[in-house]
Structures are given as structure tokens and as C-alpha cells.
Amino acid sequence: MIREKLKNSIREALKSLCIAANDIHLEHPADLRFGDYSSNVALVCARELKARPRDLAEKIVGEIRAQKIKELEKAEVAGSGFINFFLSKEFFAESVGEAVKEGENFGRNKSLNGKKIMVEYTDPNPFKEFHIGHLMSNVIGESISRIVEFHGAEVKRACYQGDVGLHTAKAIYGAMKSGEPKNAEEWGNAYAKGSSAYEDDLKAKKEIDELNKKIYDRSDARINSLYDSGRKISLDKFEEIYKKLGTHFDYYFFESGMAKPGLEIVREFLKKGIFEESDGAVVFKGEKYDPALHTRVYITSQGLPTYETKELGLHITKAETYPADISIVITANEQDGVFAVGLEAFRRIDPKLAGKIKHVSHGLLKLPTGKMSSRKGNILTAEELISDVEKLVEEKIKGRDYDKALKKEIIEKVSIGAIKYSILRQAVGGDIVYDFEKSISFEGDSGPYLQYSCVRAKSVLAKAEEEGIKPSIEKIATETSELERLLYRFPEIVERAGKEYSPHYIASYLIELASSFNNFYTKHKIVDREDETSPYKIALAAAFAATIKNGLNLLGIQAPEKM
Fold it and tell me: What is the pLDDT of residues 109-154, one digit of tens each?
């Protein structure tokens, strides 16, 4: 990348001046008038050398100019000693040509070639509805999976589903009291009913605790029948949602299968002193290893494995199923404390495997009315959110001349794109208050705006093909456009998003890029037989189309054929 070439040129300049620098920092100025890259290296080195930063910057720039870097139009000193780099028109033209030539591969790199990565995400619980928290995890996990694939890794997607545990007993209790549920919504209602009873009725609490034991040991035919029916209904419903979201999983892991290996691990390391007995239960005292941690129960006083025990079994089972170099686990940040204790326990058991685990935690997805709870029964499901957004999109395109199939495609893709972009547009760790109107806007900071920009670019290319004008970079425009000065950054943005597991870098970049393309489209007649630079402008449109399509794909967003 040009970034590395410029860094090396700075190192060579410093070497010529007998100055050593451990790290060269380059960034893109917020204002393109100040160049394509800027470095504070002179200020950093001057502090150590007790020299004047601007004087040192002038010397560094002199050395860089002497190198005659073909991609560099000029380097100049600004302010108190910053060095600004302006790339050449020829460099931008070559970048445009590269994007056109590489197409769907533009932005790919090989930094993770040969690496095996498992990404675990979504993790809904059968017997409870697929809520907007699961939706958030799914959107983030799918995007991260696509990004690391784009870096050359072999990626396997995994989903861990809680098909046993107290929530299951609560749901079955609710079903036994109100009749066998026939669909996922009814099972969600049964869970809410059982959960309320567990908290409010001591007798019900005892019954549910007994149910929980019977679910584990499969000792009651009626309970088994309800359990099997509810589990299947839930899993089938989840698959419908995954299909709508464009997600597939290579591996499904279930809590019911993790209890046995988890219990074996805990009992083995209880003997070795990692776990301890406490009031009839088996616990791990995390605070012994880190004062920020706390104690978690791994086997209850009734002899049942907790979620933490099953998570240990999961770590081992995942590694046996697919020996990954990196195991990424995506959860809500509400689970940060629990996950931290569990990971510390696992470090005491298998430090090598524990070292491969990368935890990515995200915030909550909220509506303006606030957070919702499946326990209280006032949950907003993923399907309800999607449906609400679809209705808004349908109303927005009302009266437009679309046939039935195209209208359906637009409503579905724009709605999913609106939701996904709203989740991915900000850093993963923060909470999001979903803004319905902003999310479906065809202008500004939204998924539909990106989709519309992509459709517009494809329309330009279709028109160029009709006119018989092919893209070419042989005759470039006199002035370099902002669009050119943004396009070449895409591989760099992708690289950063992959290193930090942060899709928001791509989302933010695409908005800036789309705005630049739309400004270019407004100011210039791109397809023009009378203009000798038209082939270059068409190449620019083709480069943009390839870039935004690749970027949207990394976010898990599809653009419809027309909008």
C-alpha cells in the first residue's frame, strides 16, 4: 500500500539525517486541502532531539523530495512542523484502474492467509423469542466473519444455543399451565409466564426447579414431549430469520451437549485446586487471580452444571471440532463480567487454547422507549423490528412504478440494509437507540443511501454500455476529484477493520465515499461521447461501484437492482 511506501520514505529520510524512529504515524487529514496523508514525525523526533520541529520537518521533506517518489506530487511542511503529502494524479488514475480490474477482489488482502478462524455469534435460546439483542449480535458477527474472510482467512461460523437451563424449565412450566404452544411466539409467552411465576410464587419456583432436573435427566415422558416440540419450533423459526438476514452457520453447538464435557473438566480441576467446594456447590473464585473478578458457581448444590460449566465444555468442543488459530466470541457487554471470569478459569485449565480466544462485546439495541425484557414479556422481537421497518419502507416507495417482484425486493433489501447499517455505523461497544425515520432515509447517513448510491453507479455503467463507451484510464481528467482521493483508501480501511474487528470503519468510509460520488455525479456528465475524458469518468464510476458493492457486502448488505 502507498501508506507503507510513504512510511519507508520517511524512515529513509530520517536515516539520512542520522535519526532513529521506532514508529512512523501517518493519518488522513480531515480536510483534503492539507494533503492525502499527514505525519507528526518531525514534532516527535524534535522533542527527543531538542530541536525546532519546523526546521527538522523542512530537512525531512528535503530528503523525501530527493527520493523522487513517483506516486508523490509534493510534500510540504505545515503549521508547527507537520508534514503533508499530496499524491499524484497518475497514482490516483492507477488506483482507479486497479479497482476496476480487481472488481469484487478490490480491497482483499492476504494478511490472514492460512489462518483458521471460528466466529461464534447470535446465540439465541430455544423456548425464548429471537429478540433484537440476538439480531444485533448476528449483524455484528456476520460482518466480522466477512471481513476476516476478506483478509484471506478460512472462516467457520458457529452458533451456541441454550437449549437447556432454567429458562427452559420456566417455558415448559408456562406451557403446562396454559396449553402446549404451537409456534415460537406462544413459546415466548409461555416463558414469560413461567418466569413471572418463578419470581412471584414460591410453590411455582420449587416446581420449576424440579422440572429443570427432569429436563436434564429426560425422566418424564410428558416433559420430554413438550421439550422436543418447543426446541424444534424454536430452531425452525431461527432458521427462517437467519435466511432473511443472509446468515448461515457451519456449526451449531447446544448447551445440552456441553454439560457432560464441562462437568468432567470441573471435577478434574476441582481435584487440582482450581475449583473449590462452597456450601455444597462448586465455585471458581476469580478474585484470587484478579481483584477485578468475582466468584462464579460451576456446579449447583443440586449437582447441576451452570452456564459457566457448559461454556468450558464449549471451549473444548469447539477446539476439537475445528482447530482454529483464533476463536472470536461475540456477546452483549452485559456478559462481560461473566465471560471474564470464565476465561480466567479456562486459562488455568488450558492456557494455550484460552490464548486463542478473542472476546468482542457489543452494546444494547434499544428503542426510544428503552430496553426490553423477555422475562417480563414486553420484548421486541427481531421479526417485529424488521416488519415495522418494512412497513415504513413500503410507505416511502408508495406510488413509484415498480412491478410486484421488484417492489418486494426493494422492501426486503432496503429494510435489512437499514437495520444492519444502523447497528454497524458506530463502534461495536456502544448502545444504539434505533431511529426508524433516519434508518430508512435515502439521503445522508443510512443504509438505503448507500444502496441508492450503488444502484445509481450501476445505472451509469449500464448507460455507458448502451453508448458503447468503455472505461479507460488513458486520458485522465485535468483536475483530481475528491472521489479519486477517497477510492484508493478502501484496502487500508478494510485492513484496519479486520485488525480491530470493527465494521464501523467501513460503514463510515462508505458514507463519505458515496457522498463524494453523488457530488461528482451532480457536477459532471459522466457518459458523454463528445468528451474525451468520459471513458475515465466511467472508469471512476466503475471503481466506485466495485468499491461500494464490496464494502456493502462486508457489512452484510445487498443493494436491490433498482431504487
Answer: 999 999 999 999 999 999 998 999 999 999 999 999 999 999 999 9
Residue with cell 471512476: 540
Nearest Cα residue to 78 out of 26, 40, 31: 40
Class of domain 2-87: alpha beta
Domain with CATH 1.10.730.10 in the chain: 382-554
Instruction: For residue 204, give the C-alpha cell.
Output: 411455582
Q: What is the CATH number of domain 382-554?
A: 1.10.730.10
Q: Which of 555, 559, 557 is nearest to 141 (CA)?
A: 555
Which residue spans of the chain are classified as CATH 3.30.1360.70? 2-87
Q: Which residues have a Cβ under 8 Å from the Cβ of 484 and sit 6 or more positions away?
A: 92, 93, 95, 96, 540
Q: Phi/psi at 176 (nearest 5 deg)?
A: -70, -25
Full-model pTM = 0.94
Instruction: With CA atoms as reference, report the closest residue to 467 among 530, 519, 517.
Output: 530
- C-alpha 456/C-alpha 460 separation (Å) is 6
Per-residue model confidence as pLDDT tens digits over 80-116: 999 999 999 999 999 999 999 999 999 999 999 999 9
Report d(CA 439, CA 389) in Å as an integer: 9
Closest by Cα among 371, 361, 362 to 434? 371
Strands lying side by side in the sheet with 276-278: 276-278, 281-285, 295-299
